[in-house]
Amino acid sequence: MTSVTTKPELSQPTTESNSHLFDDWFDPIESGIRGRVRELIEQMIRGELDAVLSRPRYGRRAQHAAGGDGATGVAGHRHGSRVRTLTGTFGKTEIAVPRARLNTSDGKTKEWRSQSLRAYQRRTLAADALIAGTYLAGTNTRRVRRALRSLFGGAVGKDIVSRVWRKVKSDWDAWNTRSLADEPIVRLILDGTVVRVRLDRKATSISLLVVLGVRRDGQKVLLAIKQMGGESTEAWRTVLDDLIKRGLRRPELLIVDGGTGIESAIAAVWDGVPVQRCTVHKHRNLLAHAPERLREEITADYNDMIYAATREEIETRRKAFIRKWRLKHRAVADSLEEAGDRLFTFTRLPAGQWRSVRTTNAIERLHEEFKRRIKTQTVLPSAATAAMLFWALLASGQINMRKVDGWQTLATNPIDQPIDLAA
After folding, report:
1. Three-class DSSP category at 80
2. In what order do the strands lie in the sheet with 91-103?
3. What confidence tens digit (pLDDT) does each residue in 219-272 have?
4. Distance between the two ends of the chain, CA-based, in angstroms?
5. Does pLDDT of 277 surpass 90?
6. Please, how many CA atoms are within 13 Å of residue 389, restricted to the half-sphere of its CB?
7. pTM of the entire structure?
8. pLDDT digit string (tens) for 284-341?
């Protein structure tokens, strides 16, 4: 007799294998509060309708404020209720929303709409703000659902996050067209960064051109952020022309990264305004002109010059730097001379301002924080999304900007004499 060997049945997954870490963390306080949410919301909406109809539910006459018996007139009539699902920071709940028809002046009726609960509203504004805030904190759309699953009972999916994000766009559009005529801007910091976005179904690099303003009280404020194909003269001219069109006044100082595009654009719109070339960008340029074995020595000489304590010391060390590197590696000396006195405009200001004026670091830090937040997404869904996300990080308070160093002396005019370039 041939024996038959049967295959063992696959074991079914147990309930425990599908459970999550926090599933059994029952909180009687949270449970008790959420249990009352439905009652409180329904009571609030019924009270709103009572005020519109000038009478409570089942009431036929409204009392005068002075206690009279005369009827004030019926504005309409109730006709049942409908069930709505609402998700808030209290979780997901079903509520019965009363319905009513209101009389109109032409003898017809119209459906009453609650002001507290808008038509087709499925989430509270606080819930939308929480979803958007989680996204801005550096979580991509697919991970928001997992992050907020316990709070919303799994009611937040990728499509909801996308819809919430689209609501932010209305504020973004308004910000892009706001008037700048009343902004007391005395200084501008301009710089760009490259991000990867999806364009025509392909990952493409674009430039975000950012303009920070410094108010007279020293507070930094984001003025513009535009997505462009690069940092050409035309691209920067578009950004600057838009600022001027919206009322931005001529600044007293410009701090730039030193790109040829931005230099040409500035000369076209604000010729004669003092310009400070970023000393960090110039340092990178110097190193790019030298072999690796010389970079440490170049850095030491450059820092001794840029971070000298007085204007006179900076002049002396610049001359020494030029003389030394003309002999040792001329390309380095030529690169420094290319910047001219714009690399040392900061020396014309009070020493307390030097730290904040020498570089475009204020924007560089924003770039770094922005890229840290989006690193989970690798490629952003569109170019427009990249600029809007950068703005939203500041507008929502995810990133804060402090006053510039030495703001107490911003009213001091720079001295007229530029640094001596003779070597």
Report:
1. strand
2. 76-88, 91-103, 109-111
3. 999 999 998 988 999 999 999 999 999 999 999 999 999 888 999 999 999 999
4. 107
5. yes
6. 28
7. 0.67
8. 999 999 999 999 999 999 999 999 999 999 999 999 999 999 999 999 999 999 999 9
DSSP-based three-state secondary structure for 414: coil
3-state SS of 47-67?
HHHHHHHCCCCCCCCCCCCCC
At 123, phi and psi to the nearest 5?
-140, 150
> CB of 103 within 8 A of CB of 76?
yes
Cα 74 from Cα 52, distance rounded (Å): 10
What is the token pair recorded at 325?
A: 């590197």
Please give the single-letter amino acid code of residue 112. Answer: W
| Structure token digits, residue 177 | 């067209």
DSSP string, 198-253: EETTEEEEEEEEEEEEEETTSBEEEEEEEEESS--HHHHHHHHHHHHHTTPPPPSE
CB atoms within 10 A of CB 381: 15
3-state SS class at 103: strand
The string of DSSP letters for 115-168 reads SSS-TT--B-HHHHHHHHHHHHTT--HHHHHHHTHHHHTT---HHHHHHHHHHH
Residue where the block lists tokens 């008037």: 179
Task: Report yes or no: 61 and 122 within 8 Å, Cβ to Cβ.
Answer: no
> What are residue 194's DSSP bridge partners?
207
Locate 203 and state its tokens. 């990952």
For residue 70, the model assigns a pLDDT of 44
What DSSP designation does 403 have?
B
Distance of alpha carbon 243 from alpha carbon 382, whole angstroms: 24
Q: What is the DSSP string of 320-378?
A: HHHHHHHHH-HHHHHHHHHHGGGGGGGGGS-GGGHHHHS--HHHHHHHHHHHHHHTTTS
What are the residues facing 355 on neighbouring strands? none
Instruction: Please name every residue paired with 254 in a beta bridge, in sequence order, or none if there are none.
Output: 188, 275
